[in-house]
Amino acid sequence: MLRWEATTNDTSVYSWSASFYPQPLLNWKRKSTAGLTVDFPALNVVGFVSYSISTACFLYSPTIREQYAQRHPRAPEPTVRFNDFAFAAHAMLMVAMTYSQFYAVIWKFEVPKEQRTSSIVRGIILGCIFAVLMASVRAAVLGLDHDSHLETWTWIDVVGIPCWKGISCADSYRRSMFSDTSSSLRPSANTCRKPGSTTSARAPKGGQSIRFCSIVLGGYYPWVNC
Q1: Would you place residue 2 in the very low, low, confident or very high pLDDT band (cuts 50, 70, 90)?
Q2: Is the separation of the CB atoms in 58 and 65 below 8 Å?
Q3: Residue 206 in contact with residue 170, Cβ under 8 Å?
Q4: Is the terminal CB of the chain with fewer CB neighbours within 10 Å at N or C?
Q5: Where residue 146 falls among pLDDT bands split at 50, 70, 90?
Q6: Does 103 map to a domain?
Q7: Of all helices (H) and strands (E), which one includes residue 82?
Q8: For residue 35, what are the domain limits?
Q9: pLDDT in tens, 36-47
Q10: For all residues of the chain together, what is the average pLDDT?
Q11: What is the pTM of this model?
């Protein structure tokens, strides 16, 4: 069973990685971006840049790894591996290249004048940047108290999933949505454990904060577990 899962996982990664090539190659062949929406590549850049930063931090940052271990003493080692970072970095480069093809000054392609990011997407991107900056300021201020990493915002909340009071909320939400067990055994989508506590606390508006942060930071990270 584990071998089958490993095979399907590898196939998924290779297929997803290969999917980044047809569009930029087609643009190169046509010397044009006509017919391609610019909004999706723009959001992809934000997502995979964030994804790359997150995987790199969980893999290489002593601070992030220490804070993760403090919040998850039963499983102190993040399961992110180099192949996660390699996939993210490769995807970041490919989507950045695709997005750059909308700049005629770089590629000399035919780019219709109306091909510009929509105001909605620009607002989403600016909102994402603002949210991460605010989370960084909050982590920098509250993180000065090194004895309160379990209860306050710290850097792991910036590079991971800034759900209310920590990553265990996302795990609770994931289990409630995808568990095959009886509904009576599932944790509520609105209920999260405070990091370092056995008690429960209610997250704001259930999983909406998680879905918003998925936009901010490029997706839900499956290696984050309680």
Answers
A1: low
A2: yes
A3: no
A4: N
A5: low
A6: yes
A7: helix 82-100
A8: 2-217
A9: 999 999 999 999
A10: 74
A11: 0.69
